[in-house]
Task: inverse folding
C-alpha cells in the first residue's frame, strides 16, 4: 500500500519537475499552430485544452494501461518501478516530443517527421511500421470488447463475430467524420469514465476492510513461469510506461492544440495520468487474486474477463456496470483513432488530401477490410488474442524506440542547449536494448538462447549510441567552423 502511494506521488512530482525540463528543452513559443494555419474542419480543428487533454488520454489509453498493467503485474510489484520511471523519463517525454515536433511540422505524422530528421529510408520504414502497428492495435481493440459482449449477451447469434462487425462499422463512421463531431463530443465523457473506473477499483481495494492487500515493492521476479523480467516485462506493460502507439496519436491532437504552450499539460500530462491508471490496475490485479500465480492463471481466460472479475468482485453490481462500460467502450476509443491515424498516414504517403469524403473512403474501406480479416483470425483461434497482443507489444515498443531517436535527431539539430538531446537519447538507447533483445529471445521472434540475445541487444545499443555521439561531434565541429568563418568575415570587414 505504501509503495503504491509513493509511486503515485513520484509520478506527480515527475510531472511537476521533469515535464518543465522537457518544455525548456523544446522551447515552445507563440507561433500559429496547425489548428489555425491548416484548419480544414475535419482533422485540423482548434479545441479547448481540457478537451484536447481528455481526447489524448482516451487516444493513448483505452484499455492499454489496464491490460498491459495486469499482464505486467504477473512479474510482481517490481512492475511499479517500470511504470513510474518508464513514464516520467521515457513515455511522457516520448509523447510530448512527438506531439510538439508534429505541431512544428504542420501536424505531420511520425512517419513523415522521421523522414525529415533521419532520411527517406527511415521514413518508408516508419510508414510501413506505423500502419502495421495501427492495424494490429485496431484489431486488439476490436477483439477484447467483442469477446466480453459475447460472454455477457446470452443470444447465440450475437457472438464475437457479430459484435466485431458492429464495432468495425462504428470505426468506419468515426474514422470518416470530422474529429469534433464524434471524437470531440464523446471522448471527454469516456475519459471521465476511464478515470472513474480506476478510482472506484482502488477505492474498493483500500476500503475492503483488509480483504485485499496491495503488495509492497520488491525487486524479486515473481512470474510463476520464470519468465525473465528483462526484456519481457518492459515489452508487456507497453502503454502504461512507454508506447510507440502514442506517437501515432499525438500528431492527431497536435492538429488541434491552440498554442504550443498547451502541449506540456496535454501530452506529458495525459501520459502521467495513464500511468497512474496503470499503477492502480497493476496493484488491484495482485491484490484481488492474492498471488501472481492466480493472476497469471486468470489471464489465460482473457484480459477482459480478468477486468470483469476484478470489477464485479470488488464493487459488485456497480463494478459490473463500470467494467462493461470501460472494457467495451474504452478500447473502442483507441481502436477508432488507430484507424483514423492510419488513414492520415496513408493520405500523407499517397498525397491524398483528406478534406474530401471520397479520398477518406478510398483509404478507410481497405484498411478496415484488412482489420476485419485479422480480427476474424483472432476470434476464431483459441490463442488468437494473445498472439496478436505479443506482436502488437513488440512493434509498439520498437516504434517508441525509433520515435525517441527521431526526437533526438530533432533536438540535436534545433535545440539551443548543447546536451538537450540526452533527454530523449537516454530512453532511446534503453528501448533499443529492450526491443532488440526481445525479438531475438522471444518465441515469436528468433527464439535464440538468452545470453546471445542479451549480447546482440547490447551491441545494437552501443552502435546506436556510437552513431548518436558521432553526429553530436560532427554538428559541434560544423558549428565551430561556421563560427570561425563568421569571425574571419567580421575581421576582414573591420580591416577594410
Result:
Amino acid at each position: 500500500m505504501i509503495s503504491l502511494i509513493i509511486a503515485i506521488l513520484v509520478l506527480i512530482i515527475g510531472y511537476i519537475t521533469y515535464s518543465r525540463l522537457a518544455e525548456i528543452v523544446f522551447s515552445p513559443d507563440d507561433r500559429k499552430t496547425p489548428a489555425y494555419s491548416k484548419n480544414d474542419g475535419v482533422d485540423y480543428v482548434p479545441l479547448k485544452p481540457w478537451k484536447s487533454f481528455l481526447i489524448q488520454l482516451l487516444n493513448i489509453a483505452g484499455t492499454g494501461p489496464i491490460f498491459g498493467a495486469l499482464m505486467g503485474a504477473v512479474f510482481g510489484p517490481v512492475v511499479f518501478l517500470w511504470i513510474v520511471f518508464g513514464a516520467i523519463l521515457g513515455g511522457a517525454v516520448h509523447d510530448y516530443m512527438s506531439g510538439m515536433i508534429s505541431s512544428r511540422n504542420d501536424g505531420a505524422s511520425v512517419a513523415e517527421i522521421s523522414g525529415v530528421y533521419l532520411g527517406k529510408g527511415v521514413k518508408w520504414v516508419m510508414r510501413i511500421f506505423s500502419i502495421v502497428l495501427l492495424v494490429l492495435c485496431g484489431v486488439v481493440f476490436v477483439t477484447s470488447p467483442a469477446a466480453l459482449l459475447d460472454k455477457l449477451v446470452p443470444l447465440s447469434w450475437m457472438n464475437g463475430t457479430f459484435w466485431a462487425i458492429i464495432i468495425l462499422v462504428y470505426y468506419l463512421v468515426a474514422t470518416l467524420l470530422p474529429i469534433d463531431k464524434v471524437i470531440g463530443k464523446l471522448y471527454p465523457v469516456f475519459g471521465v469514465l476511464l478515470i472513474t473506473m480506476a478510482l472506484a477499483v482502488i477505492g474498493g481495494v483500500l476500503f475492503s476492510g483488509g480483504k485485499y492487500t496491495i503488495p509492497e515493492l520488491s525487486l524479486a521476479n515473481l512470474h510463476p513461469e520464470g519468465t525473465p523480467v528483462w526484456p519481457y516485462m518492459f515489452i508487456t506493460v507497453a502503454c502504461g510506461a512507454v508506447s510507440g502507439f502514442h506517437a501515432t496519436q499525438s500528431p492527431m491532437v497536435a492538429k488541434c492544440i491552440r498554442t504550443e504552450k498547451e502541449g506540456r499539460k496535454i501530452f506529458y500530462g495525459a501520459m502521467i495520468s495513464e500511468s497512474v491508471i496503470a499503477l492502480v490496475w497493476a496493484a488491484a490485479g495482485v491484490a484481488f487474486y492474492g498471488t501472481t500465480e492466480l493472476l497469471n492463471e486468470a489471464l489465460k481466460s482473457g484480459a477482459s474477463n480478468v477486468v470483469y472479475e476484478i470489477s464485479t468482485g470488488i464493487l459488485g453490481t456497480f463494478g459490473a456496470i463500470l467494467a462493461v462500460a470501460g472494457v467495451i467502450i474504452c478500447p473502442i476509443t483507441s481502436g477508432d483513432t488507430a484507424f483514423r491515424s492510419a488513414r492520415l498516414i496513408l493520405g500523407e504517403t499517397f498525397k491524398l488530401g483528406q478534406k474530401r469524403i471520397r479520398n477518406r473512403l478510398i483509404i478507410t474501406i481497405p484498411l478496415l477490410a484488412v482489420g476485419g480479416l485479422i480480427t476474424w483470425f483472432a476470434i476464431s483461434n483459441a490463442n488468437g488474442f494473445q498472439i496478436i497482443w505479443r506482436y502488437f507489444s513488440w512493434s509498439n515498443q520498437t516504434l517508441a524506440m525509433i520515435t525517441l531517436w527521431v526526437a533526438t535527431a530533432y533536438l540535436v539539430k534545433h535545440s539551443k542547449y548543447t546536451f538537450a538531446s540526452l533527454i530523449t537519447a537516454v530512453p532511446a538507447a534503453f528501448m533499443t536494448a529492450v526491443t532488440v533483445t526481445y525479438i531475438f529471445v522471444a518465441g515469436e521472434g528468433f527464439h535464440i538462447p538468452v545470453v546471445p540475445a542479451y549480447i546482440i541487444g547490447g551491441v545494437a545499443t552501443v552502435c546506436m549510441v556510437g552513431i548518436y555521439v558521432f553526429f553530436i561531434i560532427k554538428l559541434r565541429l560544423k558549428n565551430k567552423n561556421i563560427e570561425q568563418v563568421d569571425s574571419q568575415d567580421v575581421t576582414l570587414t573591420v580591416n577594410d
Summary: The mean pLDDT is 87.
